[in-house]
Amino acid sequence: MSKNTILHKANTRGHANHEWLDSHHTFSFANYHDPKRMNFGVLRVLNDDVVDGGMGFGTHPHNNMEIISIPLEGDLQHKDSMGNVAVISQGDVQVLSAGTGISHSEQNKNKDRAVRFLQIWVLPKKQNVTPRYDQISIGDLEKKNELYQVLSPDPEDSGVWIHQDAWFFMGNLEEGISKDYTIHKAGNGVYIFVLEGDVTVDGQALNRRDGFGVWEVDSIQLKADTNTKVLLMEVPMHLA
């Protein structure tokens, strides 16, 4: 099978510093616009955010978007128009299916340290669904030197679920460990985002915060060049 790839080095991402918020955008977002970097399939937003102590995003609306938040450090306070009040921390994954419409706020719970988290938006395969909130701790799912699932389309499967034929896996791999990843659904691609360390994916060397998309393949191979943490996001390359 032929293969297509796209490489996004960490230093080529869009960058916005609002004093209280330092954000790097893999894809076009807010004031950062690059027509060549609008999305990877239905993966529309991948923001790498740092929010100062006591600061955050005030109440704002969304609709018809699957929004996933993955804290990397610190604690994030969530409130929404459905009445959910929750804190997500490193080791948690949060999902918000905006559907017909929802308002929410996200604040750094701590005043004395920053919170670092990934904000990810995925276009849904169903429009105007009933809004939904969920969060899980992935501590029970994590397996050293394995790729472990944290998101899928199936409410009965491991991790959170969204209204899209997407699968997210994370890996905490020691130097020298190799892993194969098999695509779940024909027509999907996979976008690898390096959280820490260095990894080679199908011959492409990647470093911290690099992104690498691969599609028109059945599987990919990862090899940890140093101790590394990665996020794999398998998504449809086209809306159904």
TrEMBL record:
<dbReference type="InterPro" id="IPR003829">
    <property type="entry name" value="Pirin_N_dom"/>
</dbReference>
<protein>
    <submittedName>
        <fullName>Pirin family protein</fullName>
    </submittedName>
</protein>
<dbReference type="InterPro" id="IPR011051">
    <property type="entry name" value="RmlC_Cupin_sf"/>
</dbReference>
<dbReference type="InterPro" id="IPR014710">
    <property type="entry name" value="RmlC-like_jellyroll"/>
</dbReference>
<dbReference type="Pfam" id="PF02678">
    <property type="entry name" value="Pirin"/>
</dbReference>
<feature type="domain" description="Quercetin 2,3-dioxygenase C-terminal cupin">
    <location>
        <begin position="150"/>
        <end position="235"/>
    </location>
</feature>
<dbReference type="InterPro" id="IPR012093">
    <property type="entry name" value="Pirin"/>
</dbReference>
<dbReference type="InterPro" id="IPR041602">
    <property type="entry name" value="Quercetinase_C"/>
</dbReference>
<dbReference type="Pfam" id="PF17954">
    <property type="entry name" value="Pirin_C_2"/>
</dbReference>
<comment type="similarity">
    <text>Belongs to the pirin family.</text>
</comment>
<feature type="domain" description="Pirin N-terminal">
    <location>
        <begin position="12"/>
        <end position="122"/>
    </location>
</feature>
